[in-house]
UniProtKB/TrEMBL annotation:
Origin organism lineage: Eukaryota, Metazoa, Ecdysozoa, Nematoda, Chromadorea
Taxonomic superkingdom: Eukaryota
Protein name listed in UniProt: F-box associated domain-containing protein
Source organism (scientific name): Caenorhabditis nigoni
Length: 102
């Protein structure tokens, strides 16, 4: 799912993440990009969710890179390094992981 030019509040993002983490909603969501018109307070969002920061001393805990391929946008095939700019969020029910750029 790609959302560009949207206006969201920190509470919108927190509610979305809580629903995903608790497996209450968005079960089959694989990728979500959000480009907001407004600036969000990332610290406020991070205070409200449980997450794990990247630990370079434990690189085996997650992949070094992810590739995001959006088939309906021909030119959108990007590779991202999962470094300290990303935090890891885990879904409690099945352990599925998400990476949140902060």
């Amino acid at each position: 799912m790609m959302l560009y030019g949207v206006t969201l509040t920190e509470q919108d993002v927190i509610q979305f993440l809580h629903k995903w983490i608790s497996n209450e909603a968005y079960h089959d969501l694989e990728t979500l990009f959000i480009g907001t018109e407004n600036t969000l307070n990332r610290d406020l969002i991070l205070q409200a969710i449980e997450f794990e920061e990247y630990n370079p001393n434990e690189p085996e805990k997650r992949p070094a890179k992810i590739v995001v391929d959006v088939p309906y946008i021909v030119s959108f095939n990007k590779e991202y390094d999962l470094d300290e700019d990303f935090i890891e969020i885990k879904r409690t029910a099945d352990g599925k992981r998400a990476f949140f750029f902060h």
